[in-house]
């Protein structure tokens, strides 16, 4: 086993009697005898939780826990609780195979090993899990019957078995077996010494074992000849390198083997034959003093090798604190020096004594009874080594050398007057080295050390208390009926001076009952009066000053009992209820120290101090040491070795630095310097965790629990085994406790209903002396929340809450919004009503305002048309004005009808007439238009000629709009059919109806658009490329008029197949109403709204040739197109197209100089046409002018972004249009002139370097790259440019006003000029410029530049 820690303090015995005296006056402890040995043990057994009282082996592990192997399992002990590990029949693979634990070992890796009669076992110290490691071999039962286990320096385990010696290597799980050295030499235990020799103790002697070869060597003991080798059963190596061997053979005791001497030979050791020869397997151990402790079958031996002395502990039936059994089966000293003895009656524990309180009893008493002889009311160690003790009735004095108490005969302490009366001794006072003063009820007695005689000095007052003044006088005091008071006694004159109690004297003693007396260093006399506080008397005046209980700065209690003055002159007063009071003579103030400051009791009966300045108090609950400097308090009781906790008043004495206290059970004396606290470090562990009252193993410092595992109990222990019941604990659960919870000596803590979260449980402890281990122990806990309290659940709740709040806010805001909307709708309805009224009035007013200028337009035009003085073109222009005025009037009438319908101002006006004739007349008015468009218009009516009443105005508007739509959307070759028939089956109240069906073969309406055709301002095609104009109010007006007169209308249509409208219009019989106007049939004038214009002849007086600019007009309105053409024909050659696609084709074919285009046109709009023109290389030079009714700024920007050169909005002024066109033509002409000058002026830069037009640059590059080729011609150039010859011609002519052939020739000539200037002669230049012959080149060059090449060069040189 490992070496023990050194003991800090020698064990000081509790004396039943005093040793001999010395000249110093102290009681001698130099003789070591039976009375100087600590015989007190604390006992543990099955009553305390031990599994079995028979303890075979003991071990303290590295953590500090104690382990005990018993006859029924292994026990772990933490100072409070035993945890037992026993065989489990239901889990033999993880439990002990046998319950007899014979040996323990902790290896270098902190693993715990135990051997039994069933093999080797490994124990997990944290979980208690047991893993068997049986030996698998022949005779396995003998090999697994194991006595001990030992780890050597090579970290191998050695097992002592019945079969021999077994070596086990834990890392590789391998056993190596070594048979017995002799059949009868059963191996008991092994040991490795510091020289790494391996010793084997057997039933037949001691052997050295060679671990390399497996060879045993017998080491014979020093025995008489013929003696058999003894049985060796235990080893212990002391600090002197002496190996002690225990035996189990009669006639021997211990053997000692000095490892420093050769030869190695065990020597018998048994001083005076006191050592029992029969020892146990684990029964030898040593302490720091060098004592060898030996457990035998007949008691526990403590062997002092230095003095050759042996003391044997055996049970004493009268001593409850003695050893509990003669069979000391196992011994162990823990790291604190505590002795553990395993017996067959449990465990006996003896702590190291570091508080050597020495007790003297007149009548030795091992029990707890207080015998009268041991009561001490006064005591005194004199300077001659005697101890004087008075129990109030008898006086004893110890006599050297035996220190046995001798009673003082009562007659020696009786006065001559009261010789027959008992005189009680209450006080003792030394008189230097010469004698002793004794205080009695009858006065003072003096004992003369030299003569041994007693001399009495009777007094009028009792000498219950004695105190010596600085002058040498003795002051006495007390109260015995009938007298009481105080007095001074002069030892030289033997005279008294009395200060008796006088009841009515305010300056005298306050009470006749005197409880204490002190003559201070200042000469003042302090007197304690019963329940009257303190009195201080000035001996010079005899006056008393009283100090009584009061507020802060006063005494805290008047029940004073004892008084003391320290060397600083501080007065200390002990009270019965107020603890200790301190009086400072300088400040005249009192302060108190009570149980709140740590005193064991507020009943203080004695006070003194020591050399260190500490104040020592005796109380009814033990002794107390108080430090005035640090205010630290340390208490001592019977657990620390005191015979009693009840000390008597003023039974106290200090002799130098030796303190004496009298109690109900004897005298306690000690040197205060030897009373030291146990400051040795000790560990603190959390030993148990119960979750929901179920134990939970502590395998790590982090414990995770479920939310419902929130009732926790922690167990903890400070592994210090000296009075563990006095250990103090404090704990806190971080996250619950704000501060440390002081738990006293309770070593458990409970927490209930913990919330989910992370916690840290911390615990710290103090040993029995109050020394704290602040580091303590801790464990971290995580209690997981339930799924409904996890972060994601709370996130969901938060989202749900936010959603609910948002939903409520949304609901509330929607409600408010709905209320506001309702209010807004109400206001809007009122405003709309007002606006409708305003709009109706506006439409009425504006239409009336429109009618006046229209009348002034239409009437004069009609008048002019009736005249015959105008030629054809003028009449055409007037007709154009007339038709457009009529169309504007129809639009105004429709708007007016809509406004009347909205305002509900349109009434039904019945008229009498023949329906078939009325409808036929309306249809006939469209016949001319149908013929112009090539449409077949057919009208069919069933034969009924009777007159009816109907609203002819509404019928006319309805049928006119429907027939206009049919004619508009029906193309050439199509047909329109109108069918009319009476509906005789639908007659109610004499009202019949007429069904009219209007069908066309036009473009039709798609199914998705059909439901909306009666909506106001709805148009099936609202794009810029729609083919048909319209406002979107015609069918809406029809529907509202039909509804107004009580009819119905429906439509059926198929795209590409045509549309059919079915009307049911109500009529009344003519007889139903007597007086109604007759229907006036409409004049059969052709409908002019969609008439095709008559072609206008262009003026013929202006010659039109190729030099006149060519203008293309792209406009889908035929009349506007015709009008523009007629107005511009005098200045330009005119081309016309009626949609964007046709315009693009004409532009590519004819390459006009300017294109005038509308925006909204069928197939391609004006923007798309502009984009095509400006981004095609053949047409990008053509100027484009957009002429559109879209006058918005965004529309103008869009057109200009597409490349339009100019943008005019409708209506426009012709003079502005003429100017804009003229400017464009002028700009184009200037650009052409510039391009031509590049050829005719050879001094200008080369055309290819400054040309901006991309097409011309491409042409110049082709000419440049093939300039020397005489075969280069127009056809080759057109082929290279992927153009027709005609297109090439028009393109080049429009850019430079040259034909391609002229362009090629002038480009050659211009390059020739550059070559001539560069130094080439005429001949070289001709060929380089692509001319076939120099002569031809010269002729052409002179023709163009008016100079021959030679003259050109000469002229250039002369200029240079």
UniProtKB/TrEMBL annotation:
All residue ranges annotated as the Histidine kinase domain in the record: 845-1069
Keyword Transcription: yes
Signal peptide (UniProt feature, chain positions): 1-19
Catalyses which reaction(s): ATP + protein L-histidine = ADP + protein N-phospho-L-histidine
4-aspartylphosphate: modified positions: 1158
Keywords: ATP-binding, Kinase, Membrane, Nucleotide-binding, Phosphoprotein, Signal, Transcription, Transcription regulation, Transferase, Transmembrane, Transmembrane helix, Two-component regulatory system
InterPro entries given in the database record: CheY-like_superfamily, HATPase_C_sf, HATPase_dom, His_kinase_dom, HisK_dim/P_dom, HisK_dim/P_sf, Homeodomain-like_sf, HTH_AraC
Segments forming domain HTH araC/xylS-type: 1257-1355
Enzyme Commission numbers on file: 2.7.13.3
Pfam families associated with the record: HATPase_c (PF02518), HisKA (PF00512), HTH_18 (PF12833), Reg_prop (PF07494), Response_reg (PF00072), Y_Y_Y (PF07495)
Domain of life assignment: Bacteria
Entries under PANTHER family matching the protein: HYBRID SIGNAL TRANSDUCTION HISTIDINE KINASE C (PTHR43547:SF2), TWO-COMPONENT HISTIDINE KINASE (PTHR43547)
Protein name: histidine kinase
């Amino acid at each position: 086993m490992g070496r023990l820690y050194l003991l800090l303090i020698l064990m000081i015995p509790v004396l039943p009697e005093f040793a001999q005296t010395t000249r110093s006056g102290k009681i001698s402890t130099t003789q070591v005898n039976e009375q100087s040995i600590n015989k007190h043990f604390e006992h543990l057994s099955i009553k305390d939780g031990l599994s079995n009282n028979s303890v075979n082996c003991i071990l303290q592990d590295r953590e500090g826990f104690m382990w005990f192997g018993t006859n029924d399992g292994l026990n772990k002990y933490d100072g409070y609780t035993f945890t037992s590990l026993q065989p489990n029949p239901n889990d033999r693979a993880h439990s002990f195979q046998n319950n007899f634990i014979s040996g323990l070992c902790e290896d270098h890796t902190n693993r715990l090993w135990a051997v039994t009669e069933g093999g080797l076992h490994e124990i997990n110290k944290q979980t208690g899990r047991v893993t068997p490691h049986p030996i698998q071999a022949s005779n396995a039962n003998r090999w697994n019957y194991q006595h001990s286990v030992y780890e050597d320096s090579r970290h191998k385990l050695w097992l002592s078995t019945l079969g021999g010696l077994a070596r086990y290597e834990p890392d590789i799980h391998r056993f190596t077996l070594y048979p017995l050295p002799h059949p009868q030499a059963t191996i008991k235990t092994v040991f490795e010494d510091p020289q790494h020799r391996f010793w084997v103790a057997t039933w037949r002697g001691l052997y050295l074992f060679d671990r390399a070869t497996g060879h045993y060597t017998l080491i014979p003991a020093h025995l008489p000849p013929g003696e058999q080798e003894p049985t060796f059963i235990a080893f212990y190596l002391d600090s002197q390198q002496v190996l002690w061997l225990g035996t189990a053979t009669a006639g021997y005791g211990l053997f000692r083997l000095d490892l420093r001497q050769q030869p190695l030979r065990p020597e018998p050791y048994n001083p005076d034959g006191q050592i029992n020869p029969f020892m146990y397997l684990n029964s030898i151990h040593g302490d720091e003093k060098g004592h060898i402790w030996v457990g035998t079958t007949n008691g526990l031996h403590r062997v002092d090798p230095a003095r050759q002395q042996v003391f044997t502990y055996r049970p004493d039936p009268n001593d409850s604190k003695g050893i509990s059994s003669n069979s000391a089966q196992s011994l162990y000293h823990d790291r604190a020096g505590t002795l553990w003895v395993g017996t067959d009656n449990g465990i006996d524990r003896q702590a190291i004594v570091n508080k050597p309180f020495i007790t003297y009893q007149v009548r030795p008493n091992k029990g707890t009874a207080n015998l009268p002889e041991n009561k001490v009311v006064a005591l005194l160690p004199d300077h001659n080594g005697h101890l004087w003790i008075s129990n109030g009735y008898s006086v004893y004095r110890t006599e050297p050398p035996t220190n046995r108490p001798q009673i003082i005969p009562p007659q020696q302490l009786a006065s001559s007057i009261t010789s027959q009366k008992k005189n009680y001794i209450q006080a003792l006072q030394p008189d230097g080295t010469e004698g002793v003063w004794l205080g009695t009820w009858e006065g003072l007695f003096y004992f003369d050390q030299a003569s041994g005689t007693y001399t009495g000095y009777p007094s009028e007052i009792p000498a219950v208390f004695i105190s010596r003044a600085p002058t040498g006088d003795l002051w006495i005091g007390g109260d015995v009926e009938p007298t009481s008071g105080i007095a001074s006694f002069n030892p030289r004159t033997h005279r008294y001076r009395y200060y008796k109690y006088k009841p009515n004297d305010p300056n005298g003693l306050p009470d006749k009952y005197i409880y204490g007396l002190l003559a201070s260093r200042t000469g003042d006399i302090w007197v304690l009066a019963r329940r009257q506080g303190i009195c201080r008397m000035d001996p010079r005046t005899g006056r008393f000053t009283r100090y009584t209980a009061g507020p802060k700065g006063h005494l805290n209690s008047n029940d004073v009992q004892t008084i003391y003055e320290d060397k600083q002159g501080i007065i200390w007063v002990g009270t019965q209820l107020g603890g200790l009071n301190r009086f400072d003579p300088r400040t005249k103030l009192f302060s108190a120290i009570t149980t709140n400051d740590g005193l064991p009791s507020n009943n203080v009966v004695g006070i003194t101090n020591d050399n260190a300045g500490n104040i020592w108090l005796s109380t009814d609950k033990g002794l107390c040491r108080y430090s005035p400097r640090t205010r630290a308090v340390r208490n001592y009781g019977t657990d620390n070795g005191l015979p009693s906790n009840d000390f008597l008043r003023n039974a106290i004495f200090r002799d130098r630095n030796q303190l004496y206290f009298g109690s109900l059970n004897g005298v306690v004396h000690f040197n205060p310097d030897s009373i030291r606290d146990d400051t040795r470090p000790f560990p603190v562990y959390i030993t148990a965790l119960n979750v929901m009252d179920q134990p939970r193993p502590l395998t790590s410092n982090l414990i995770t629990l479920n939310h419902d595992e929130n009732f926790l109990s922690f167990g903890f222990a400070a592994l210090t085994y000296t009075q563990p019941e006095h250990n103090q604990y404090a704990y806190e659960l971080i996250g619950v406790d704000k501060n440390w919870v002081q738990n006293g000596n309770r070593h458990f803590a409970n927490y209930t209903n913990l919330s989910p979260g992370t916690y840290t449980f911390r615990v710290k402890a103090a040993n029995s002396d109050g020394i704290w281990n602040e580091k303590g122990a801790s464990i971290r806990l995580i209690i997981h929340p339930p799924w409904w309290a996890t972060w994601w659940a709370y996130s969901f709740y938060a989202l749900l809450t936010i959603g609910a709040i948002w939903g409520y806010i949304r609901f509330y805001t929607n409600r408010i919004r709905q209320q506001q909307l309702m209010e807004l709708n109400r206001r809007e309805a009122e405003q709309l009503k007002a606006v409708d009224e305003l709009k109706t009035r506006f439409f009425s007013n504006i239409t009336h305002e429109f009618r006046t200028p229209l009348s002034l337009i239409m009437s004069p035009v009609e008048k002019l048309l009736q005249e015959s003085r105008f030629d054809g073109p003028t009449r055409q222009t007037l007709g154009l004005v007339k038709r457009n005025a009529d169309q504007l009037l129809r639009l105004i009438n429709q708007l007016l009808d809509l406004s009347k319908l909205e305002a509900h101002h349109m009434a039904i006006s019945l008229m009498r007439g023949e329906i078939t004739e009325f409808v036929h007349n309306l249809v006939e008015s469209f016949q001319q238009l149908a013929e112009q468009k090539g449409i077949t218009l057919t009208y069919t009516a069933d034969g009924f000629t009777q007159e009816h009443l109907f609203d002819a105005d509404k019928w006319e508007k309805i049928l006119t709009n429907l027939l206009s739509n049919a004619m508009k959307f029906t193309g050439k070759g199509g047909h329109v059919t109108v069918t009319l028939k009476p509906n005789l089956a639908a007659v109610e109240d004499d009202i019949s109806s007429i069904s009219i069906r209007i069908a066309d073969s036009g473009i039709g309406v798609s199914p998705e658009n059909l439901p909306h055709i009666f909506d106001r301002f709805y148009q099936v095609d609202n794009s810029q490329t729609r083919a048909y104009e319209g406002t979107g109010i015609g069918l809406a007006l029809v529907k509202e008029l039909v509804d107004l007169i009580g009819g119905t209308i429906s439509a059926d249509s198929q795209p590409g197949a045509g549309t059919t409208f079915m009307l049911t219009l109500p009529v009344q019989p003519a007889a139903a109403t007597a007086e109604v106007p007759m229907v006036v049939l409409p004049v059969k004038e052709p409908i002019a709204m969609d008439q095709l214009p008559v072609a206008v002849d262009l003026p013929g007086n202006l010659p039109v040739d190729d030099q006149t600019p060519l203008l293309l007009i792209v406009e889908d309105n035929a009349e506007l197109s015709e009008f523009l053409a007629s107005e511009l024909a005098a200045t330009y050659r005119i081309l016309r197209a009626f949609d964007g696609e046709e315009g693009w084709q004409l532009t590519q074919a004819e390459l006009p100089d300017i294109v005038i285009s509308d925006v909204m046109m069928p197939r391609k709009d004006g923007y798309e046409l502009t984009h095509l023109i400006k981004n095609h290389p053949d047409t990008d030079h053509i100027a484009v002018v957009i002429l559109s009714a879209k006058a918005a700024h965004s529309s103008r920007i869009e057109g200009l972004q597409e490349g339009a050169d100019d943008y005019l909005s409708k209506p426009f002024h012709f003079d502005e249009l003429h100017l804009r066109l003229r400017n464009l033509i002028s700009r184009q002409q200037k650009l052409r002139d510039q391009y031509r000058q590049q050829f005719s002026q050879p001094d200008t830069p080369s055309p290819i370097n400054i040309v901006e037009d991309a097409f011309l640059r491409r042409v110049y590059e082709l000419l440049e790259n093939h300039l020397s080729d005489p075969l280069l011609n127009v056809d080759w150039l057109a082929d290279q440019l992927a153009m027709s010859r005609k297109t090439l011609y028009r393109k080049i002519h429009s850019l430079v006003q040259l034909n391609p052939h002229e362009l090629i020739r002038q480009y050659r000539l211009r390059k020739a000029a550059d070559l001539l200037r560069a130094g080439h002669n005429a001949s070289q230049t001709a060929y380089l410029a692509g001319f076939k012959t120099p002569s031809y080149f010269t002729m052409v060059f002179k023709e163009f530049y008016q100079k021959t090449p030679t003259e050109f060069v000469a002229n250039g040189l002369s200029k240079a």
